[in-house]
Amino acid sequence: MEYGPGDRAFYFCEDGEKMNWHVFSFLEQYYLFDTPSNSLFNIDRPTFLRLKAESTTEDASKYRQLYEKEFSSAVNEEVEEELLILKQEGYLAEDDPFLEKPVFNLKPDLKALCLHLAHDCQLRCVYCFAGGGAFGGDKSLMSPEVGRAAIDFLCSASGEKEHLEADFFGGEPLLNKELLYALVLYGEEKASSVGKKMHFTLTTNTLELNRELLEFLREHRMGLVLSLDGRKEVNDRMRGKGSYQRIVPRILEVIRDFPELTHYVRGTFTRYNLDFCQDVKHFYDLGMRSISLEPVVCAPELPYAIQEEDLPYIYEEYDRLALFYLETQKQGDPFRFFHFVVDLKKGPCLPKRLLGCGAGFDYLAVTPQGELYPCHQFVGEKTFALGDVFTGIKAAETRETFRQARLYQKEGCSQCWARYYCSGGCHAHAYFANGSILKPNYLACKLLKKRLECALALNAMQLEEKANTP
Length: 470
Description:
By secondary structure, the chain is an alpha/beta fold. It has helices spanning 45-55, 60-70, 73-88, 144-157, 177-193, 211-219, 232-239, 243-257, 277-286, 311-330, 350-355, 396-404, 419-422, 427-434, 442-468; strands at 21-26, 29-34, 39-43, 112-116, 163-169, 197-204, 223-227, 263-269, 290-295, 336-337, 363-366, 371-373, 387-388, 392-393.
């Protein structure tokens, strides 16, 4: 059964893996994903083994022997016939039809800013990219002058773009709460005056949330990212003793009293809690239904850093999480897990899939002093300073480097079956792991591919269930 076609897809390729298609199994079901067409097929075991033997080099003989042992020559003839039909219809292609063709003249129009309202924080999360939440001792707050200049810069540098975004970030942005109020009002008025619309989001540890602020967020239809890492012992180990007890009631207040607010509960798992499915279940038991749990990004020598030897266990944990995801759907009380949300029929256009997040090009971060960086994770890396909100972009060459850091320029990405779903991965993760934004983070790629397999299989099961429902 085919569940696609739609737009397209991507990844960091296994040795010998075919670049334009991928076969995998999940819950004793077998799937073929065709990359260029973004099509997913439910296949049988003989077809799986036959394609698996073709798509890998290291274990090819193992799959070939299984195939020959389990199935007769008659079955083999049927499989070859079906594969020939697929190839005649344009699937299982040898060459990437987009590798040489995509040429996009992307205009240097800004779409979004990440506004660091504060470089201070009440917590000192061990893994924080900001060095314990305070950017190496910088506890500065953004001034109203810098905030207004940032909004003005976004509006003037956005060109023909009509829909703009401003993300309030930190540190903890609510340590500068009055400026948030002021910039939302200023931003909406400024955008309207130039024929645009501005949407705001807030990432917060929740400690400064109160009813007045939540009413304001609801009135202005702001999105929320609420930080919590999971079970009490997991959260408090990395985010500070007692933080769980302070955070959970505030998140539950949002869910209970402000259901109109679009939100995600966003956590980080480390080597200390590789059983992170239990943390997702804990969120669910608390009543949380929009969840994102991300693998930690940090120096590999740190004790909580995920290691390659952890991958088999993490893969099994994602399988356990996918099973739990299915169970809640069958019970009629599902939740959203950020990495399992895949739409085979709709999605970003090809230029967006090739460019990725747009960091350093149409998305920039603004420090409390007004400095511009490619994204929040590059803040403080002076090599990547782009200019400031008062005088604009000064490091045009650096910005051009990010504009050119598209999928097909990244090492290994053009050879990866999953390439149109990660757009080459995070520039910052690549840089801090390998010293280059063009060399993806190996572990991040491996984890992303596993999540995508789960997401694709879950998507197929949901579509099949719909098709079979009277």
